[in-house]
Write a structure and sequence with these properties.
The complex is a heterotrimer of chains A (444), B (290) and C (392). Chain A is α/β, with parallel strands linked by helices and 444 residues long. Chain A has one domain (14-234, 241-443). Helices cover 53% and strands 10% of the residues of chain A. Chain A has 19 helices and eight strands. In chain A, helix 13 links the parallel strand 5 and strand 6. Chain A starts with 13 loop residues before the first helix and ends with a helix. The mean pLDDT of chain A is 94. Chain B is an alpha/beta fold and 290 residues long. Chain B has two domains: 3-86 and 244-286, ATPase, nucleotide binding domain (Nucleotidyltransferase, domain 5, 2-Layer Sandwich); 94-238, ATPase, nucleotide binding domain (Nucleotidyltransferase, domain 5), CATH 3.30.420. Chain B has eight helices and ten strands. In chain B, the strands form two sheets. In chain B, strands 3-2-1-4-5 form a five-stranded mixed sheet. Residues 261-290 of chain B have low confidence and may be disordered. With 392 residues, chain C is an alpha/beta fold. Chain C has a domain at 25-166: Rossmann fold (3-Layer(aba) Sandwich). Helix content of chain C is 52%, strand content 11%. Chain C has helices at 6-20, 22-33, 47-52, 80-91, 107-119, 139-158, 164-190, 197-207, 212-224, 249-257, 268-274, 284-298, 311-322, 336-351, 368-383; strands at 37-40, 56-59, 99-102, 125-127, 235-241, 260-267, 326-332, 356-361. A four-stranded parallel sheet of chain C has the order 2-1-3-4, sandwiched between helices. Chain C is globular. Classes of the chains: A alpha/beta (444), B alpha/beta (290), C alpha/beta (392). Chain A binds chain C through residues 84-87, 89-91, 94, 138, 142-145, 147-149, 151-152, 154-155, 159, 163, 165, 167, 169-170, 172, 174, 196, 355, 358-359, 382, 384-385, 387-388, 390-395, and chain C through 72-75, 77-78, 105-108, 110-111, 114-115, 117-118, 125-129, 131-133, 135-136, 138, 142, 302-303, 305-307, 331, 333-334, 336-337, 339-344, 346-347, 360.
Chain lengths: 444, 290, 392
């Protein structure tokens, strides 16, 4: 890997305080059992405002995998998964989390950790810390592996923990008139998911022994709506030149919008994000030292290399101004949420997962963003073990070239398995793409 | 007296073992070849027979193993190298449970039961990562001979990140590290650690059972053995002749009666050690484990 | 040793030909009947619906072609089937299909079907997802609703109404066909070694492509004159996996060449295909919905989420029933549902002391040496001290 020189990236200061919010959240999760809380493990869509209203502690499996990867602690979990029998080509989110599940289960049942592939100190560091679940909930949009995942965790735990499934239909758009938030497919699916979410509240009542607190749920959704609006407004400011914040800043606050408790603190956090960005705009300060190129990042995040990637793009004077993962997930259509009756808007936002659309729709969304943010090119992260995200990429790249004359490049990496990242490939292709942009500019 | 022949025709080496009627090793030959070749095999065979003072016609039973086993003429049977390694290592190092074999082109983890049977195994024969070839890339990048690698690696201190497991990308990465001024010793040590980490994944597939024995060409590299022992957090024993375990296993299987046509159940006493390797008693003094 | 009478052998040849060149059969069928062909994606779309509309359903499988153009449409880490599907679409090799129907939700399949949609814009593609989660209260209602939608869409595609009577007729014919296939596989399980694995696969695959009546007739010919060849002492194996497309016949042959004989399987192009009949009484659309749910009970598939049935139970039962001495798990490389479920299978096989081997398969480059080394090692273990007679 090339030696790091000066860091030309200037990430938002607020993200440091933000990091503490997330660390505190996980510490509370690790100690949930000590406080007598009921714990739910879930994957996929943000169903957490419902858990919060039910007074449960919620643990988003893939979020934990992402956190481990970002902290470079994913190795032992993945090794435990491998020992259990998971092949290395499997979705690394699932593999990492299931490795934790295996270790967590073994610790809880007091049985020895297999043949001890993972040493005791490492176990204590991670999986041992995840509290065992009282309930599994799966509400996965867009990815069949995600939909299967919790059933597997359910089996790892010996089928002793109840599980509830929310089926989330794929937005295929068979007919003309069906597309992003429009059409019969959208109407029908929205109602179907909302009904299942309602059913979920009754299941939680039986787990907690308490009636579901609809007032608390409405309050949660109101906070999330506000937080999301602020986040969206802040994101839109990045269409300015120089961009006051980048994709890497939004990555640092994915945890917040995705699963931190809905609260005034969360709203205040995104208000502070927006304020800092507005201040940068006023001061004419950009997120990177010399913005010469603007690109869109299409792909799941490479959690193992956040710091490295942020610095690398800045070194190339590239502002990564927006991305499908950060901009098309996480309550991105807050106007759909009716604070008086939020269930439908909740279901709809969940359905709009960035992997839950046909290629046609994704192409439209991506090109619209490219127009809005004024990018020169698209960087596609070809994630080895996440095919749900890579599905439309080749076709979208072609469309971006043909319809917008945008430069595109693909680099190889993965969501949580560091061994799939190829640094040399990113460097050489990024260099080539920037040269293409230079040549086009010279000709124009 | 009966004599038994085991021939292991691998991808880059030919190994031959001749056992006498008592089960003692009368000859053991290792011949380096450019690629799988009948000529290399014949050379190893001739040398072994000469040493053992036995003619080919006097061999009671012969078994071939290895990548090129079907190319070996005049044998009674073939067995896979998995079965033969398990049998050979169980004889050399009684009580072994896990055999980690790292050769020139492939690597294997074999779970061995108390009868010397391969209970389970995992192989990487798909790419160079975690095999001897990866060390060739290292040697080329830091410009040294293969047999200097161990010494360099053992002197390494700084932990560098070597992320590429693809040999193609790794070469560039290592040259890049050199260009940054990193020391050859540190680079070598880091590559050894990376290979050991890769091997962990293979071991995970069959389970980290102990005691562990390492075989194959790479087992002659003391730094590679140490790196594996550290990764596995357990002692790793290397038999005094790690390259001939497959051929030995084949010869033992021939002696077991496995070579005779129509043989039914025959007595396999894997606990009876081959008596040439008196120094290999799985004691802590042997091998490069902690 | 002949596998049967001249008529049987002739029928087997005809079926093998169709299995090898489905597009040739479809073209010839079209020329003969003037009808339309619909490409069905594996694994749950009921062919009865197409049959009832007078349309020929062709279940799409991997072609023999190396992937070229398709390599740029989907990344390399997609299963051989989906990547080849994209490649076939790009090459125009699917042009003989007048439309496509999909009932499943595998993420890679969706990616490949989106490529088909882009590369074959003239042919309508209809995706309706049958509910993947089967133990929910609303699963049956959703399945029924989706089957109804499929019938309506097929009627629209074919330009003819599809009534209950037509559906019931197709269901009955389809059940007959499945019954005959069951008979053949039961004979193998019971000890008849007349047909090899590749031959049986061709018998099933051809049935995924041919007109039902034609296929049934040929099946009868195969069964009628089939010899009863007792098994020899080769190691008996169960093949498990390959959930939506066929393993290469060369791979099956390579396995049997090592000194093994396959006595049973739970492959898609094996017992999964005909495991479950559709009820012939009552409302046919309801019957199809029930078939979808019931099918997963008889042959649990890891692509479905369900909490009650365990694939490992049926696998072990099958192994005990057939007297198989070992299991080869044929895992398609990159097949996520299989990768997710595999550890549960492995756990149970280990608990029961059933020797097993995991073999990953790909679209291109069958590495015969490496496959045979692994399979031989498994057989050597099963044989323990009795040596494997390897023919040289």
């Amino acid at each position: 890997m090339t030696a790091p020189t000066t860091d030309k990236s200037s990430r938002l200061a607020i993200n440091k305080a933000g990091g503490k919010m997330v660390a505190d959240y996980w510490d509370r999760i690790f100690t949930a059992r000590e406080r007598g809380e009921k714990v739910v493990w879930y994957n996929g869509s943000a169903v957490n405002p419902i858990f919060q209203a039910a007074g449960m502690a919620w643990c988003h499996g893939e979020a934990f995998s992402a956190r481990l990867a970002a902290q470079h602690l994913e190795g032992p979990a993945q090794l435990a998964g491998q020992e259990y029998g998971y092949v290395g080509e499997l979705c690394s989110y699932a593999r990492t989390h299931l490795g934790c599940a295996v270790l967590s289960r073994k610790r809880a049942t007091g049985s020895a950790n297999g043949t001890g592939m993972v040493g005791l100190p490492e176990q204590a560091e991670l999986a041992g810390r995840l509290p065992t679940p009282d309930l599994f909930v799966n509400a996965y949009a867009g990815c069949s592996t995600g939909q299967q995942w919790d059933d597997i965790s359910f089996r790892v735990f010996g089928k002793e923990v109840p599980i509830f499934n929310v089926s989330m239909p794929f937005m295929w758009s068979n007919r003309p008139g069906e597309g992003y938030m429009v059409g019969e497919e959208w109407e029908r699916s929205s109602r179907y998911v909302a009904e299942q979410l309602r059913e979920l509240t009754t299941v939680l009542e039986s787990i907690t022994g308490r009636p579901f607190d609809w007032d608390a749920y409405r309050q949660n959704m109101a906070y999330l709506k506000q937080a999301s609006e602020l986040r969206q407004e802040a994101m839109r400011l990045c269409r300015l030149t120089p961009a006051p914040a980048t994709f890497w800043d939004w990555i640092a606050s994915v945890a917040h919008i995705n699963f931190l408790p809905a609260s005034q603190e969360l709203v205040d956090f995104f208000a502070a994000v927006k304020a800092e960005i507005e201040q940068r705009v006023a001061d004419g300060v950009g997120a990177i030292a010399d913005e010469r190129y603007r690109v869109y990042f299409d792909g799941f995040m490479n959690w193992n290399h956040l710091g490295l990637l942020a610095k690398k793009f800045a070194r190339y004077d590239v502002a990564v101004v927006a991305g499908r993962y950060t901009h098309h997930a996480f309550w991105q259509e807050p106007q759909l949420i009716d604070p008086e009756d939020p269930l439908l808007g909740h279901a709809q936002n969940n359905l709009l997962c960035p992997m839950n659309h046909s290629t046609k729709t994704i192409e439209r969304l991506v090109l619209r963003d490219c127009d809005y943010y004024g990018v020169d090119g698209i960087v596609f992260h070809s994630t080895r073990t996440c095919r749900a995200f890579t599905n439309p990429q080749r076709l979208v790249a072609k469309a971006a070239q043909e319809k917008r004359g945008l430069a595109t490049m693909f680099f190889e990496g993965d969501i949580a398995d560091a061994s799939y990242y190829k640094d040399e490939v990113l460097d050489s292709r990024l260099t080539a793409m920037l040269e293409t942009i230079d040549v086009r500019r010279a000709r124009a | 007296m009966s004599h038994y022949l085991g021939i292991d025709l691998g991808s880059t080496t030919a190994k031959v073992v001749v056992l006498d009627g008592h089960g003692d090793i009368a000859a053991a030959e290792v011949v380096q070849m450019g690629a799988v070749s009948r000529a290399g095999c014949a050379r190893a065979l001739d040398a072994a027979l000469t040493t053992a003072r036995v003619r080919r016609g006097e061999i009671t039973a012969a078994i071939a193993t290895g990548y090129g086993r079907r190319l070996v003429p005049d044998v009674d049977r073939t067995f896979t190298e998995i079965t033969c390694h398990a049998r050979g290592v169980a004889a050399m190092c009684p009580g072994v449970r896990l055999v980690v074999d790292i050769g020139g082109q492939d690597s294997k983890a074999i779970l061995v039961d108390s009868d010397g049977i391969a209970e389970n195994f995992a192989m990487n024969d798909r790419c160079a990562s975690g095999t001897g070839r990866f060390f060739e890339v290292l040697a080329r990048a830091i410009e040294c001979d293969l047999d200097e690698l161990a010494g360099l690696a053992l002197a390494g201190e700084k932990q560098l990140e070597v992320s590429s497991m693809c040999a193609t990308f790794a070469e560039t990465e290592l040259i890049s590290l050199l260009a940054q001024g990193e020391r050859r010793t540190d680079i070598a040590a880091s590559v050894h650690r990376a290979v050991a980490a890769r091997t962990l994944g293979l071991v995970a597939q069959v389970g980290r059972h102990t005691p562990v024995v390492m075989t194959g060409g790479v087992a002659r590299n003391a730094a590679a053995v140490r790196a594996l022992a550290e990764a596995l957090r357990t002692e790793v024993v290397v038999p005094s002749s790690p390259q001939i375990t497959g051929a030995l296993g084949a010869a033992l299987l021939a002696r077991d009666g496995a070579g005779a046509r129509g043989a039914g159940e025959s007595a396999v006493d894997a606990r009876e050690p081959a008596r040439s390797c008196a120094s290999c008693d799985m004691s802590a003094a042997h091998g490069a484990g902690r | 040793m002949p596998v049967g009478t001249g008529s049987t052998v002739g029928a087997l040849d005809a079926l093998a030909d169709v299995a090898a060149r489905p597009e040739a059969y479809a073209a010839q069928w079209k020329a003969r009947t003037g009808g339309r062909v619909v490409g069905i994606l594996p694994m749950n779309f009921p062919r009865e619906i197409a049959h009832a509309a007078g349309v020929l359903p062709v279940l799409l499988q991997e072609s023999r072609e190396p992937d070229t153009m398709g390599r740029h449409l989907l990344a390399e880490f997609y299963c051989g089937f989906t990547r080849n599907l994209a490649d076939s679409a790009a090459k125009g090799a699917l042009d003989y299909c007048d439309g496509f129907f999909v009932a499943d939700h595998c993420t890679q399949l969706l990616g490949a079907v989106d490529v088909v949609r882009a590369e074959a814009p003239g042919s309508p593609v209809f995706l309706g997802q049958l509910p993947p989660s089967l133990t929910d209260e609303w699963a049956r209602g959703e399945a029924r609703s989706m089957m109804r939608t499929f019938v309506d869409e097929m009627a629209r595609f074919a330009g003819v109404p599809v009534g209950d009577a037509a559906l019931s007729r197709s269901i009955a014919l389809s059940n007959d066909n499945r019954t005959l296939l069951r008979e053949l596989f039961a004979a193998r399980r019971a000890g008849n070694a007349a047909l090899s694995s590749p031959q049986l696969q061709a018998v099933v695959k051809s049935g995924m492509v041919m007109d039902l009546a034609e296929h049934t007739e040929l099946l009868r010919q195969v069964i009628q004159g089939l010899a009863d060849l007792p098994r020899d002492n080769r190691v008996r194996l169960h093949l498990s996996g390959h959930l939506c497309h066929a393993p290469r016949p060369e791979l099956l042959a390579a396995i049997e060449e090592c000194g093994a004989i396959v006595v049973d399987d739970d492959l898609f192009t094996g017992t999964r295909w005909f495991s479950t009949d559709v009820a012939e009484d009552g409302d046919p659309v309801e019957a199809l919905a029930c078939w979808y749910l019931e099918r997963d009970r008889t042959a649990p598939c890891p692509t479905r989420v369900k909490h009650e049935t365990d694939w490992e139970d049926t696998l072990v039962e099958a192994v005990e029933a057939s007297g198989a001495e070992g299991v080869i798990v044929l895992m398609v490389r990159f097949c996520e549902p299989h990768m997710l479920y595999y550890p549960e299978l492995r756990k149970r096989l280990n608990e029961r002391g059933i020797p097993h081997l995991l073999l990953e398969t790909e679209h291109e480059g069958l590495p015969v040496e490496t496959v045979q080394t692994r399979v031989e090692a498994l057989l050597e273990r099963i044989r323990r001290t009795a040596p494997v007679e390897v023919s040289r």
